[in-house]
Backbone:
């Protein structure tokens, strides 16, 4: 079993839809979580950074962490064609020096 | 947000030559830089972690003599692909972590094509 798993997609939704992107993980020590967006042939761009359980909102994006279920989500409201990209989750444990473990990414396509 | 640049953005070279890729943190000091490799439609594969002034730590299966990493300053790390072969063709991406934060900020990537 991989440490971090994501549905690879592609996930296709109509413009304006609410999108739910998810990651599951196996290491209960993970406490810090990030979501990145990567456009084709570009480097990943940091979207959200969260610590422990709970929700964090930034504009149309909401990150949710459920440590009891080892499950994190990124919700995108009012999705736009410009949101079409690959979304990567990343996480690490409490040790600051540890590198983040990345999920394989989910490809999202928002259709106009 | 913090900005990380990479140069060149793309490079084509002949088999057997060496290629150097630069990664710079433009508006912050990066104590740690990471080098990743990414094949089309696949996720990031961490190659190595480098801390300023010390030797890089390579991931299992990554040849340290083939992929030379130098992190000589708090704003610059370089990856040199030595004696490149067609199977080294890939998208190479660096990321940097600053002194005061935990987030990793990525560069735009370098596309290497070895003929």
Residues:
């Amino acid at each position: 079993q991989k440490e971090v798993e994501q549905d690879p997609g592609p996930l296709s939704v109509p413009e304006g839809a609410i999108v739910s992107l998810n990651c599951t993980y196996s290491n209960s020590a993970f406490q810090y979580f990030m979501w990145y967006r990567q456009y084709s042939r570009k480097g990943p761009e940091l979207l959200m950074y969260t610590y422990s359980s709970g929700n964090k909102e930034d504009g149309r994006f909401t990150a949710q962490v459920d440590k009891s279920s080892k499950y994190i989500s990124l919700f995108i409201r009012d999705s736009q064609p410009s949101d079409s990209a690959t979304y990567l989750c990343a996480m690490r444990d409490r040790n600051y020096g540890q590198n983040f473990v990345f999920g394989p990414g989910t490809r999202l396509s928002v259709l106009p | 947000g913090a900005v990380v640049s990479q140069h060149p953005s793309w490079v084509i070279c002949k088999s057997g030559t060496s290629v150097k890729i630069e990664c710079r943190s433009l508006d912050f000091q990066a104590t740690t830089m990471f080098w990743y490799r990414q094949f089309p439609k696949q996720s990031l594969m961490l190659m190595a972690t480098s801390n300023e002034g010390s030797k890089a730590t390579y991931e299992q299966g990554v040849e340290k003599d083939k992929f030379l990493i130098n992190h000589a300053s708090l704003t610059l790390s370089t990856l040199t692909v030595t004696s490149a072969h067609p199977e080294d063709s890939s998208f190479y991406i660096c990321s940097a972590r600053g002194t005061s934060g935990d987030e990793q900020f990525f560069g735009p990537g370098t596309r290497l094509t070895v003929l």
About this structure: Chain B touches chain A through 22 residues (CB under 8 Å).
